[in-house]
Design brief:
mainly alpha; Rna Polymerase Sigma Factor, Chain: A; Arc Repressor Mutant, subunit A; 2 domains; 8 helices; 73% helix; elongated
């Protein structure tokens, strides 16, 4: 597989194979990310199209990512999701795909699903929009603090504060002592 730097350099030269490989590598990831945020397959598909259209426009103008292509694409997707949510005047809840099947017992699987459902409920009811995005990018999409800061347009210290506050809210919401 071609590394991102080589792929990006070939895409800047508009080599069809590189553009196709870039799309094949990142479109499914961007689609899943957008779908988690907007819950609408058609809208998520539009966001993917917008992201790659914007990328080719940027590359044609001699702009675009210099190094971290993945982070750059997620940043564009993040902004498109925000644009769509502003247009619709609502902010949507985060969803994740179910945990994969494993070698656990049926009871353990039910417990995992219950924990995941409680966590998603807490994320969607207790966290602000920025907190949801930071948790999604850091722990579901597996971005670093720096990459998360770049994607959402905040500095690293701000992302750390948002993350810590979100974790604190989740810890409090999931704590057995606080439940009735």
């Amino acid at each position: 597989m071609i590394d991102d730097a080589t792929l990006l350099e070939s895409a800047k030269n508009f080599k069809p194979d590189a553009l196709g490989a870039l799309f094949d590598a990142y479109a499914p990831l961007i689609y899943k990310y957008a779908l988690r945020l907007c819950h609408d397959p058609d809208e998520a598909d539009d966001i993917v199209g917008d992201v790659f259209s914007q990328l080719t426009t940027q590359l044609a103008a001699g702009k675009g990512p210099k190094q971290n292509l993945r982070s750059y694409l997620y940043q564009m997707a993040y902004h498109r999701v925000i644009d769509y949510s502003r247009k619709d005047r609502h902010f949507v809840d985060i969803e994740t795909t179910p945990l994969p099947d494993s070698e656990f017992s049926v009871q353990e699987e039910h417990e995992k699903q219950a924990i995941q459902a409680s966590l998603l409920k807490a994320i969607n009811t207790e966290l602000t929009g920025d907190q949801k995005h930071v948790i999604l990018l850091r722990f579901i999409e597996d971005f670093s603090i720096q990459e998360t800061a770049d994607i959402i347009g905040k500095d690293v210290n701000n992302v750390k504060v948002i993350q810590n506050r979100a974790i604190g809210k989740l810890r409090q919401a999931l704590s057995p002592e606080t439940k009735d």
